[in-house]
Design goal:
Blueprint lengths: L2 H12 L3 E7 L5 E6 L7 H19 L5 E4 L4 H16 L4 E10 L5 E5 L7 E5 L7 H13 L3 E10 L11 H9 L2 E7 H8 L3 E2 L2 E2 L3 H14 L2
Helix pairs in contact: 2-3
């Protein structure tokens, strides 16, 4: 496993973004883990988060894109932090772009924040976590309505590796099959489990035998 992935897993735990226990998800599923990207709130956390996203995007997509699009609302700080990190780490200025929930009709008019989109732009979409293809279903028409762009892919922080809306394959695989968009994550939940299982993290075992058994049982039922 790449060094940045190992560091990112510990970073999620340290930031209290990835928690373990018993959680009821929006879907109604009882999950032994929960991720809340809204817990990244400090300047240092956002700086590091942008760097991890930048490394993952560079690994999967290289420099072969022009715009990083972060859907409102959580995608806005993600896109800003990541383009800053991308310039710092790789010396390339990527434009950031996000959408407004309501179209602005005065001053900086339109539905977009940040950069405008131009014909031929190659776009990577950035999100926190995707449990279904609904967000992409909403995002693609917004992008296509602005210009004739090429959507290169989607990057999320954690692939939960659960069945998508069709109940057969993972949400990220479903996005690729439905929309032809390459969907990737900084880390997968399998990598998280493998790395943290019986491994001291700042002196504490995060995933012990009991929690590992709960995770295994969850994926036996909901895993893709």
């Amino acid at each position: 496993m790449e060094q940045y992935k190992q560091e990112f897993i510990e970073f999620m735990v340290d930031s209290h973004v990835l928690k373990f226990g018993e959680f009821t998800l929006k879907s109604g599923r009882k999950s032994p883990f929960f991720m809340n990207a809204g817990a990244y709130v400090t300047g240092t956390q956002l700086m590091k988060l942008g760097e991890y996203y930048a490394q993952a995007i560079h690994t999967h997509f290289g420099d072969d894109f022009d715009v990083l699009f972060g859907p409102a609302y959580k995608g806005i700080p993600l896109s800003v932090a990541t383009v800053i990190a991308y310039a710092k780490l790789y010396g390339k200025d990527i434009r950031y772009c996000s959408n407004r929930k309501e179209i602005k009709d005065h001053g900086d008019v339109g539905i977009l924040l940040g950069s405008s989109l131009q014909d031929g732009d190659r776009v990577v979409i950035i999100e926190d976590v995707t449990t279904s293809g609904k967000s992409i279903e909403e995002t693609c028409p917004i992008l296509k309505a602005q210009a004739d762009v090429e959507i290169k892919g989607l990057m999320v922080s954690l692939n939960r590796m659960e069945k998508g809306s069709d109940g057969k394959v993972s949400a990220l695989r479903e996005i690729k099959e439905k929309y032809g968009i390459e969907a990737s994550a900084i880390v997968t939940m399998a990598e998280v489990t493998e790395y943290l299982y019986n491994r001291p993290c700042h002196g504490e075992i995060v995933i012990d035998d009991t929690l590992k058994a709960a995770i295994d049982a969850y994926y036996a039922q909901y895993g893709a």
